[in-house]
Amino acid sequence: MTIGLYAVINKNTGKTYIGSSKHVELRLIHQKSFLKTGHPCMIAALKNTSINIEDFDFKIIAETKTIEEARELETAFLECFWGDWLYNKAIHANGSKGVKRDHDTYSAGAKKQWNDPEQRAKKMAAMRGKRKIVECPHCGKTGGGGNMRRYHFEKCKSK
Ligand SMILES: [Zn+2]
Q1: What is the 151 CA–ligand 1 centroid distance (Å)?
Q2: Are 70 and 64 in contact (CB under 8 A)?
Q3: How far is residue 8's CA from residue 115's CA, in Å, rounded to a whole number?
């Protein structure tokens, strides 16, 4: 079993759902059956639309060692590639909308960048860089990615 990030891609429209799981292969099988049966919990946006399972591609896009890392990566991915081309409703893996952002600036060109192999490689590197282990200069706590950015550095309580 693989821990990591997966994508469910509508081959007709290019619209994509990004998720993370402890058991990607299993999750992908579940997502397939969710799609087949019209189960709403996968993609709210697909509710009440008719779905042909053959229209969807299921891909593992990144492997990680832990589920925490996978969630960080999911959030970093959404932050990097956020736009209308995603089925995802929230920019954070935990479902929170996080910091209020101008989604339009994110949407601009995000799908294009994702489809262009060179740009994608660059962005993927940036997104992985986002979750490298860092140390807060104020309290000395170390960690990866989003939580550190959200609760430390400029926002650190010990500052
Ligand atoms: Zn701190």
Answers
A1: 7
A2: yes
A3: 15
Residue 3 has a CB neighbour count (10 Å cut-off) of 18
CA–centroid distance, 154 to ligand 1, in Å, is 8
* Tokens (6 digits) for 10: 């509508």
Distance between CA atoms of residues 68 and 12, nearest Å: 32
pTM equals 0.66
84 to each of 62, 133, 156, how far by Cα in Å?
22, 30, 33
Q: Which domains does the chain have, with CATH numbers?
A: 3-131 (3.40.1440.10)
> What angle separates helix 67-81 from helix 117-130, to the nearest 10 degrees?
130
**Per-residue tens of pLDDT for the chain, all 159 residues:** 788 888 888 888 888 888 888 888 777 777 666 666 544 445 555 656 666 777 888 888 888 888 888 888 888 888 888 877 888 877 766 666 554 445 555 555 777 777 888 888 888 887 777 666 678 889 988 777 667 778 888 899 988
Please name the residue that has the structure tokens 């991915």.
77
CA of 159 relative to ligand 1 center, distance in Å: 7
